[in-house]
């Protein structure tokens, strides 16, 4: 169900009082190993897993990724897996009953019952995380950076790209689904951080950096995520274009298309800007089409990497349960546990 539909039903539910809203008792980050639970969760992903049962017969299990605003958890449903696979809709909230176990060192919910929930029973804020920062204030900061661009072709390019619908989507989009800045407004927040780190590079080691080109690349580096993710999806599902092309390619195509509409746009400027977008992940194994081969492309990569990595550490630290001591659980994206500073434990 789309976010705008959920918002409508939530408004209707509130207008008739709060009886329709299900009373939430627990969140994902409160689940305890070995305990039975009943918990409403959003269904992010589902897939059938075929295996050979103990009797030698072929069987299926339904593997799920579930979550709420506090995090995600893997889940498995052994009985009637094919029927549930056909009936359970992704990007919707269901009531799950089961037992919290562990699989390969990570929590896993073994489900024994699933109950559908009506839209009026759902508290949207329990599933959609929003940046705590004022997005209008953030947008004005980004708009001021755009207005500071002096190179005429780059300034015109930004004006062409950021029309009213794009501005609206850009202020709502996440920077990712779970790795970093994975919340409404996350893309805007991340982009401003990338701009800030790049500005510091210009001030400290900017002899060969092109300020206008670098900052334009910072602003546009993740513009492809507006098409990579379904922004009307509760769980920000990846679109077909996102799966087939990815946001680097989508963004580079957008820049090329809009630059072609601008008379006299310098070919070498367009080429380097496209290269910056296609290379900003740094390494081919990290998703870059090419490694950075210009100083501006390298600066963009480092600024993006710094924002992303610190965002990952911040997410882990802020979600850490102080009762578990000074070290976080193993994070599969960073491939390590993270030390949690005292001030975070005391907060």
Walk me through the structure.
This protein has 2 domains: 3-126, Nucleic acid-binding proteins (OB fold (Dihydrolipoamide Acetyltransferase, E2P), Beta Barrel); 135-312, Hypothetical protein af1432 (Orthogonal Bundle). It is of the alpha+beta class. The chain has helices at 3-15, 81-87, 135-147, 152-161, 164-172, 186-205, 211-220, 225-228, 240-244, 246-260, 267-279, 295-319, 342-346, and strands at residues 36-52, 58-68, 71-77, 93-103, 106-116. Helix 3 (135-147) runs parallel beside helix 6 and helix 6 (186-205) packs across helix 12 (295-319). It contains 13 helices and 5 strands. It has a 5-stranded mixed β-barrel with strand order 1-2-3-5-4.
Write the layout of secondary structure elements.
Elements: H1 3-15, E1 36-52, E2 58-68, E3 71-77, H2 81-87, E4 93-103, E5 106-116, H3 135-147, H4 152-161, H5 164-172, H6 186-205, H7 211-220, H8 225-228, H9 240-244, H10 246-260, H11 267-279, H12 295-319, H13 342-346
Parallel strand pairs: 3-5
Antiparallel strand pairs: 1-2, 1-4, 2-3, 4-5
Structural key phrases:
347 residues; alpha+beta; OB fold (Dihydrolipoamide Acetyltransferase, E2P); 13 helices; 43% helix
Structural class: alpha+beta
Task: Kindly provide the radius of gyration, computed on alpha-carbon positions and rounded to a whole number of angstroms.
Answer: 22 Å
Determine the mean pLDDT: 89
> Low-confidence spans: pLDDT under 50, at least 5 residues?
5-19
What is the count of structural domains? 2
Task: Report the major sheet.
Answer: 5 strands, mixed, barrel
What is the CATH architecture descriptor of the largest domain? Orthogonal Bundle
CATH class bucket of the largest domain: Mainly Alpha
């Amino acid at each position: 169900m789309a976010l705008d539909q959920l918002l409508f039903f939530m408004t209707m539910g509130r207008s008739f009082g709060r009886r329709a809203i299900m009373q939430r008792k627990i969140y994902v980050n409160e689940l305890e190993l070995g305990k039975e639970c009943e918990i409403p969760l959003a269904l992010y992903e589902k897939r059938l897993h075929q295996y050979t049962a103990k009797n030698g017969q072929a069987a299926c299990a339904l593997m799920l990724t579930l979550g709420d605003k506090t995090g995600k958890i893997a889940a498995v449903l052994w009985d009637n897996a094919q029927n549930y696979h056909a009936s359970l809709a992704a990007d919707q909230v269901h009531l799950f009953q089961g037992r919290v176990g562990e699989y390969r060192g990570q929590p896993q919910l073994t489900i024994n019952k699933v109950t559908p929930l009506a839209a009026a029973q759902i508290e949207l804020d329990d599933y959609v995380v929003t940046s705590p920062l004022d997005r209008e204030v953030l947008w004005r900061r980004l708009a001021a950076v755009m207005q500071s661009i002096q190179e005429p072709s780059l300034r015109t390019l930004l004006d062409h790209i950021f029309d009213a619908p794009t501005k609206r989507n850009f202020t709502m989009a996440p920077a990712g689904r779970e790795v970093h800045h994975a919340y409404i407004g996350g893309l805007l927040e991340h982009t401003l951080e990338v701009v800030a780190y790049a500005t510091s590079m210009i001030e400290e080691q900017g002899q060969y950096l092109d300020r206008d080109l670098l900052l334009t690349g910072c602003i546009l580096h993740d513009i492809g995520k507006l098409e990579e993710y379904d922004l009307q999806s509760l769980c920000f599902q990846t679109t077909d274009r996102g799966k087939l092309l990815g946001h680097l390619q989508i963004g580079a195509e957008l820049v090329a298309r809009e630059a072609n509409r601008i008379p006299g746009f310098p070919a070498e400027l367009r080429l380097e800007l496209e290269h910056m977008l296609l290379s900003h992940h740094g390494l081919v194994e990290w998703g870059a089409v090419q490694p950075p081969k210009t100083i501006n492309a390298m600066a963009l990569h480092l600024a993006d990497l710094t924002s992303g990595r610190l965002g990952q550490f911040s997410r882990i630290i802020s979600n850490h349960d102080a009762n578990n001591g000074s070290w976080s659980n193993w994070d599969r994206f960073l491939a390590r546990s993270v030390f949690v500073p005292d001030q975070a434990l005391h907060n």
